[in-house]
Specification:
With 210 residues, the chain is of the alpha/beta class. The chain is 37% helix and 25% strand. It has a five-stranded mixed beta barrel.
Length: 210
């Protein structure tokens, strides 16, 4: 695989595009399909399509896929797989927190939180949310609620990435029983192991050693 340098590429060639999510043009809550606008490493604007579970503004992504031409919307990067990292810059953190993923945090408050805690913001939200009350206007109760939502979002991201990685429908995360993402991952993993073991026994009974 090669990285895109801005030139014209064969649509059948699988490439890697690195960039930052600048805009979420479309997002389907049921299956995670999205159309994104990225700021690529080389400064170009890229339209990317694919399954991006619970994606947020400001996230840094590494996409694997190929270029396609949509009859209406033109050139797009069709993503087959992707990796992502939470933003580390103050601006990126502010954009992520202010994108609507966490209730009670708008763009202005997101900017204040990012400026106050910098690159430690996400760690504080996860482990020391009470410190948010150091900011004027955030009560202890609101600080804990923001921390709770961020933890749930983080666990849901983990679950969605796990399902996507194993080719399972992202819609599973909308089930009423989805209370703890880590528990769901554990259950799915054991189920997959059971299915794999069953297939092995079945093949062995048929005399197949593949």
């Amino acid at each position: 695989m090669t990285s895109w340098d801005g030139g014209t590429l064969d649509e059948r060639e699988y490439l890697i595009v690195r960039g930052t999510v600048q805009q979420i043009v479309y997002y389907n809550d049921e299956n995670g399909y999205a159309v994104l606008r990225l700021a690529a490493e080389n400064g170009a604007e890229v339209t990317a399509t694919g399954t991006f579970p619970n994606i947020g503004l400001g996230e840094e992504v590494i996409l694997t896929g190929c270029w396609v031409t949509h009859p209406t919307y033109g050139e797009q990067f069709a993503t087959e797989a992707f990796e992502r990292r939470l933003p580390t810059s103050v601006r990126g953190i502010a954009e992520y927190l202010g994108s609507g993923l966490i209730r009670g945090i708008g763009p202005r408050l997101a900017a204040k939180i990012a400026e106050k805690f910098g690159e430690d913001t996400f760690d504080i939200l996860m482990h020391e949310p009470e410190r948010l009350s150091e900011l004027r206007g955030i009560t202890d109760r609101k600080a804990k609620e923001i921390g709770r939502q961020f933890t749930e979002q983080s666990e849901m991201r983990l679950l969605m990435d796990f399902l996507s990685e194993h080719g399972l429908p992202v819609a599973l995360t909308t089930a009423p029983s989805t209370r703890c993402a880590r528990t769901r991952i554990c259950c799915v993993t054991h189920t997959m192991m059971w299915i794999s073991s069953w297939r092995t026994v079945w093949r062995w009974s048929l005399g197949c050693r593949c």
